[in-house]
Specification:
This protein folds into 3 domains: about 220 residues, Orthogonal Bundle (Hypothetical protein af1432); about 120 residues, no CATH class; about 70 residues, no CATH class. It is built from 23 helices and 5 strands. The strands form 2 sheets. The protein has a 3-stranded antiparallel sheet with strand order 1-4-5. A two-stranded antiparallel sheet has the order 2-3. Helix 13 runs antiparallel to helix 16 and helix 14 runs antiparallel to helix 15. The longest helix has 24 residues. It is globular.
Length: about 475
């Protein structure tokens, strides 16, 4: 894998490639529905239209009441999926801005850097398919769908953008091909990567979440959409892009590659999670200075980052100072450091720039970011206090799914009941129930649970 710095001086071959690239860019702006006739005096680019579609969609608005890490309504400070997505978009555009100015203006890379509205579209919509109650909700829905194509948050995001969104009868949000490629973190069909699950317990109460993690994938139902997204690529690039590792055990296989834009989005997501979600935990008292000194600071120092080592005392004092402006200075320093450390490497196994270019952090900064993520997983997410809430959300979703599945025509909203009936004729009506469950906010799911199972709550006058 070659560093892009060695490729920034253009040769005659580079110039020829860049000219060819410019003529090929338009194919990535296509939509499955075909060309759009611009409204009068509307000069927006296709990617600006994509961003507008995401921001104005119901699926995006619902993120305001979906759990990021800490449950909604536990406080009025911590981040939701919506505010997290906004921060990922800001960091993603910051990475692109950094790469634009850190590389030579006549580099071939400049041709393929996503414009701001495109990377914001990808980042804003990266969690749009995630269900209520965070990753716990994802596992619960995968459990109910394990014999019917599975459930996975990234696959659901692609399904909404390409099929279930509200801007087209048949093509969902109907965003551009390149936006869909950027969302496509795992370009492999479910059947190609799913492992072997244990036997299901006799009761939901015996459900063990760790045994039902979903494979990272695209649903079988979206195989035609996947083929359309990848169709401009050479056959060899397509075959390589869709390769997976194959573990010897019954575990899920994993895809090996993602696109250039997806690598930017994924890194922005990791930075937002690693830094901003830690800030939430500190402000709420879940992480204190003693925990930082014992568990996190040694790992950050061991990463080998000279910048973090030189500034670690200031970061620690500011982030635990109790003064919001000093805490924000520490958080901003960390985010800025990760953004400005980014570089681009080239995967020589691909011929197309949208696959060959990848954004990376240097090893030391990558280890530091991983240390932040590991700390949060161990000392925040996996604590009994958080896991009890995760378990409760999972149990609610499992019971509601079972109830809706028992009599869909009776219990589903009328329009969805008709969709379920039509889908049953093609063999997978359960996917429609799963779409409905995944679209719910935490609040909506709680209200529906009460309406179904708590006799004293719910009313015919309460719209669902």
């Amino acid at each position: 894998m070659a560093n892009i710095e060695s490729l920034t001086t253009p040769t005659s071959s580079d110039i020829s490639t860049r000219n060819t690239s410019l003529t090929a860019l338009h194919i990535w702006q296509e939509r499955r529905s075909g060309p759009i006739t611009p409204r009068h005096n509307d000069y927006r680019s296709p990617y600006q239209r994509d961003r507008a579609r995401i921001i104005h969609s119901a699926a995006f608005r619902r993120l305001q009441s979906k759990t990021q890490i800490l449950a909604i309504r536990q406080n009025d400070y911590s981040r939701t999926r919506l505010t997290h997505s906004l921060e990922v978009a800001q960091i993603g555009s910051g990475i692109v801005h950094h790469l634009k100015h850190a590389n030579m203006t006549d580099s071939v890379l400049q041709t393929w850097l996503p414009e701001e509205s495109l990377i914001e579209t990808i980042c804003l919509s990266h969690d749009i398919g995630h269900p209520p109650f965070g990753h716990g909700g994802e596992i619960a829905l995968n459990y109910m769908m394990s014999e019917h194509g599975g459930f996975e948050g990234n696959a659901q995001s692609l399904r909404i953008l390409g099929k279930r969104g509200s801007y087209s009868r048949d093509f969902g949000m109907d965003v551009t091909r390149r936006a869909l490629l950027g969302i496509l973190k795992y370009p492999v069909i479910h059947q190609k990567v799913v492992g072997t699950y244990p036997e299901k317990p006799s009761s939901f109460r015996q459900f063990k979440a760790s045994q039902w993690n979903p494979p990272k994938c695209v649903y079988q139902e979206e195989e035609q959409l996947l083929n359309w997204i990848l169709s401009p690529l050479s056959e060899q690039d397509q075959d390589t892009f869709c390769l997976v590792n194959k573990p010897d055990t019954a575990q899920h296989a994993k895809s090996l590659y993602s696109s250039f834009d997806a690598s930017i989005m994924d890194l922005a997501d990791d930075i937002a999670y690693g830094v901003h979600d830690l800030e939430d935990a500190i402000v709420l008292g879940m992480v204190n200075k003693e925990m930082w000194l014992q568990h996190l600071e040694p790992a950050l120092l061991a990463s080998g980052s000279d910048t973090l080592s030189a500034n670690i005392a200031t970061i620690r004092e500011n982030i635990f100072s109790g003064a919001s402006h000093l805490r924000k200075d520490a958080v901003g320093f960390l985010v800025s450091h990760f953004i400005t450390s980014c570089n681009v490497k080239k995967q020589d196994v691909f011929s197309h720039p949208l696959l060959s270019y990848q954004v990376h952090l240097p090893d030391s900064e990558a280890k530091a970011l991983q240390a932040l993520k590991n700390f949060e997983m161990q000392h925040i997410i996996q604590t009994p206090e958080v896991q009890m809430l995760v378990y409760k959300g999972q149990q609610m979703l499992l019971e509601m799914f079972e109830a809706l599945l028992s009599d869909p025509l009776r219990l589903l909203p009328t329009e969805l009941a008709h969709e379920w009936q039509a889908a049953e004729q093609t063999g997978n009506g359960r996917r429609i129930i799963c779409d409905y469950m995944a679209s719910m906010t935490d609040d909506y799911a709680s209200r529906l649970y009460n309406k179904l199972f708590v006799p004293s709550l719910g009313s015919v006058f309460e719209p669902m």
